[in-house]
Amino acid sequence: MKSLRFDAYKSSPELVETGRPVPGPGEVLLKVAGAGACHSDVAVFTEFDEEFGPAQLRPSFTLGHETSGWVEELGAGVSGFEKGDAYLVYGPTGCGHCRACSRGQDTYCENAATMPYLAIGLGRDGGMAEYVTVPARNLVPLGDADPVAAAPLADAGLTPYHAVKKSLPKLAGGGTYALVIGLGGLGQLAVQIISALTGATVIATDSNPAAMERAATNGALTVDSGPDQAEQIRALTGGRGVDAVFDLVGIAPTIELAMKVVALQGRVTVVGIGNGSYDWNFYGVPYEVELTSTYWGTVEELHEVVDLYRAGKITPQVELFSLDEAPLAYEKLIAGELAGRAVVSP
Ligand code: NAD
Ligand code: ZN
User: What is the CATH number of the domain that holds 136?
Assistant: First the structure.
């Protein structure tokens, strides 16, 4: 079968002929329905090397950590799955038995440092292929929902969902405001998730006008990145500021913007891995503002994300690519030319 492989640091991924994988004990072989292209993959193949980046992300492996598919074959000891049923893949793979893993939070596995890989598609072979093997505990049922469009939910849905859930106390009640900075794969779903879970008014910004238009169709008020951007955002909140900011870019200027517009006792969650710095000062920000980062989400939360999808409350906008076009999907992602999350559908 064909697989899109990350084969060497600082080089573009390439389509390679590989053998069809065999599910090990406790694993399920999926025939891939869709695999989303996430901007984090770009960091893996453009920024990391022997010195910088987790050891678990050493080449080579098959990309694709946002995967859906149909059950094809069961490994030893696995039961309760029907061939042909559709599932979404929870990517993170912890040890499975520490406290964090026992609550479904493999992202914060206490034994992560000694694990051979971070996730399916991040160290372990992922979904940019015709078939992928997955531990049975990482499978979330999709029922009769479209599995191809569901693929981005595994990360572009789950990551903002986790961040929004942690910010819910800030967005409760009426008259609250949320700001989403960066309206790509994650950002478009962040706008929809905030609207699905809260009564907050959503403000959205992106350096790309087309991305802002898409967010506006999902009900967000948009502000472009002009010189008086912070003033404009504050004005939309009646001067009070934003209760919860989600920065899906994470470079110094976007964190700075977030901290400029956040309300007293508000919360800023940096999701984007732009690795920007911020010079905190006691007098520089309103009292009790929280500035935090986040990483992906829990398997239980992925079940909740699928519930929202099946109820029609969130819908990933996708641009489809064949497996042969998978390199092009990443090229368009890097160039900012996508009209939705790129999903490779073999
Ligand atoms: P994407 O490329 O689909 O979207 C990024 C968006 O940000 C684009 O619309 C782009 O125009 C916009 N943008 C870029 N620079 C900007 C700026 N200075 N101001 C305003 N907008 C700007 O990327 P994505 O896949 O949605 O990922 C977003 C970020 O989240 C990436 O950094 C990715 O690595 C990160 N990520 C983090 C986690 C996590 O667990 N923390 C999980 C997945 C992705
Ligand atoms: Zn663990």
Answer: 3.90.180.10
Count of domains observed in the chain:
2
What's the 11 CA to ligand 2 centre distance in angstroms?
31
Residues lining ligand 1, judged by CB closer than 6 Å?
38-40, 43, 155-156, 159, 181-187, 205-208, 211, 225, 248-251, 253-254, 271-274, 294-296, 333, 336
For residues 146 and 138, give the distance between their C-alpha atoms in angstroms, rounded to a whole number: 19
Span from the CA of 83 to the centroid of ligand 1 (angstroms):
36
The CA–CA distances, whole Å, from 59 to 7, 17, 40, 172, 272 equal 5, 16, 15, 44, 23
212: containing domain: 158-293
Quote the crossing angle between the two packed helices 326-335 and 39-46, to the nearest 10°. 100
Digitized pLDDT (tens) for each residue of the chain, 346 residues in all:
999 999 999 999 999 999 999 999 999 999 999 999 999 999 999 999 999 989 999 999 999 999 999 999 999 999 999 999 999 999 999 999 999 999 999 999 999 999 999 999 999 999 999 999 999 999 999 999 999 999 999 999 999 999 999 999 999 988 999 999 999 999 999 999 999 999 999 999 999 999 999 999 999 999 998 889 999 999 999 999 999 999 999 999 999 999 999 999 999 999 999 999 999 999 999 999 999 999 999 999 999 999 999 999 999 999 999 999 999 999 999 999 999 999 999 9
**13 and 151 fall within a common domain:** yes
C-beta neighbour count of 114 within 10 angstroms: 9
ipTM: 0.99
Does pTM surpass 0.90? yes
